[in-house]
């Protein structure tokens, strides 16, 4: 089995000198110390990650990872599996929410297709064909993937991070598209956090209360079959998804290339949880864009000791909840780089 370097090689450290310089700069800008709250912390953290006195997130790369889920055979989504492939075409044609946000932000957008049941037309612009299999195994009955399939998906994610680095990205966003993936993500989160599916299962694209109970029962069957293995690789292979594994590889690959990552909602956060379990240092490279309305997200964020920047009741995926938070990071950089100091502006400092 081939695994990308980022799965095992220690991640780079952030630059403590630049971080300290940025902290000092924040303390002399013309405002009461700390008055820009989290925006100050973002500028300081970005300075350390980007090893610069002038942090910037002008160049943003968004990679949406798509894959289908065999567990859809259990009736766990409000939408048909065909939507995954149809949405890939919609991303390419510019009509999806993340397509609009990418244009709005001036970000580059690519879609990585790990395998769909529906047919994806050839030659769609911005779509990378990285097909591994048409869909995962039905995780309620069998492992979702083999470990070598997980390795291939991690590598496809790492390649997306490589393309982001080659494009000079200052910030990386991963998005997900895969009907049924809230079931796989919930199974993974329950496994890694030792939680009961009744506590974490939610409506996803719009199940009613009965549908959510059925989904939790399907996840319980999967966890019973899977047993106690909480290793990141074991959990991904047994309970994950092609796109979830690729997202884990992409996040690790971006951090490995010193590109900070803005995490989206529930699905991407679960992929981040898997990746952090594999490489705990990854946490230093992550921002969390928003808290999804999907009920399991809060527990996953708590396990990652992270505070989301926004809470807008969004529950879409695709990277959309990260994309809407980009202007906050840009504001943090503009303030940090552009404000005058007390000395420069002739404003009296604290007495
Ligand atoms: C039109 C459409 C666009 C989407 N974009 C993201 N998702 C999101 O919803 C799906 C997960 O929910 P579940 O587990 O309930 O199937 C994933 O495809 C996710 O990316 C979408 C879903 C739909 C229907
Ligand atoms: O928060 C998410 O990532 C999410 C929630 C519901 C459906 N798809 C994705």
Automatic annotation (TrEMBL):
Catalytic residues as annotated in Swiss-Prot or TrEMBL: 318 (proton acceptor)
Protein keywords: Cobalamin biosynthesis, Glycosyltransferase, Transferase
One matching Pfam family: DBI_PRT
Enzyme Commission number, as recorded: 2.4.2.21
Matches recorded under Gene3D superfamilies: 1.10.1610.10, 3.40.50.10210
Catalytic activity: 5,6-dimethylbenzimidazole + nicotinate beta-D-ribonucleotide = alpha-ribazole 5'-phosphate + nicotinate + H(+)
InterPro entries the UniProt entry points to: Nict_dMeBzImd_PRibTrfase (IPR003200), Nict_dMeBzImd_PRibTrfase_bact (IPR017846), Nict_dMeBzImd_PRibTrfase_N (IPR023195), Nict_dMeBzImd_PRibTrfase_sf (IPR036087)
Entry's Gene Ontology molecular function annotations: nicotinate-nucleotide-dimethylbenzimidazole phosphoribosyltransferase activity
Pathway named in the protein's UniProt entry: Nucleoside biosynthesis; alpha-ribazole biosynthesis; alpha-ribazole from 5,6-dimethylbenzimidazole: step 1/2
Sequence similarity: Belongs to the CobT family.
Function: Catalyzes the synthesis of alpha-ribazole-5'-phosphate from nicotinate mononucleotide (NAMN) and 5,6-dimethylbenzimidazole (DMB).
Protein name: Nicotinate-nucleotide--dimethylbenzimidazole phosphoribosyltransferase
The gene coding this protein: cobT
């Amino acid at each position: 089995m081939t695994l990308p370097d980022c799965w095992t090689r220690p991640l780079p450290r952030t630059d403590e000198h630049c971080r300290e310089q940025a902290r000092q700069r924040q303390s002399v800008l013309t405002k009461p110390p700390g008055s820009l709250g989290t925006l100050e912390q973002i500028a300081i953290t970005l300075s350390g990650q980007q090893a610069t006195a002038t942090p910037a997130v002008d160049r943003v790369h968004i990679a949406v990872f798509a894959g289908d889920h065999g567990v859809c055979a259990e009736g766990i989504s409000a939408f048909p599996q065909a939507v995954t492939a149809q949405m890939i075409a919609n991303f390419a044609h510019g009509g999806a929410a993340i397509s609009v946000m990418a244009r709005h932000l001036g970000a580059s957008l690519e879609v990585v297709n790990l395998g769909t049941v529906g047919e994806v037309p050839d030659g769609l612009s911005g779509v990378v064909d990285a097909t591994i299999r048409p869909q995962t195994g039905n995780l309620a009955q069998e492992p979702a993937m083999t470990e070598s399939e997980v390795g291939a998906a991690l590598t496809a994610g790492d390649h997306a991070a490589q393309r982001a680095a080659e494009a000079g990205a200052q910030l990386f966003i991963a998005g997900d598209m895969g009907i049924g993936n809230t079931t796989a993500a919930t199974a993974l989160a329950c496994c890694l956090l030792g939680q009961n599916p009744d506590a974490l299962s939610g409506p996803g694209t719009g199940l009613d209360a009965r549908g959510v109970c059925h989904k939790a029962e399907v996840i319980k069957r999967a966890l019973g079959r899977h047993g106690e293995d909480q290793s990141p690789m074991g959990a991904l292979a047994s309970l994950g998804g092609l796109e979830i594994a690729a997202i884990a590889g992409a996040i690790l690959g971006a951090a490995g290339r010193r590109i900070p990552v803005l995490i989206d909602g529930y699905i991407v956060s679960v992929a981040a949880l898997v990746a952090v379990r594999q490489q705990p240092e990854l946490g230093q490279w992550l921002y969390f864009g928003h808290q999804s309305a999907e009920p399991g997200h809060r527990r996953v964020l708590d396990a990652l000791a992270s505070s989301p920047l926004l809470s807008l009741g969004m529950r879409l995926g695709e990277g959309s909840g990260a994309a809407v938070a980009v202007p906050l990071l840009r504001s943090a950089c503009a303030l940090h780089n552009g404000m005058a100091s007390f000395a420069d502006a002739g404003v009296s400092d604290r007495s």
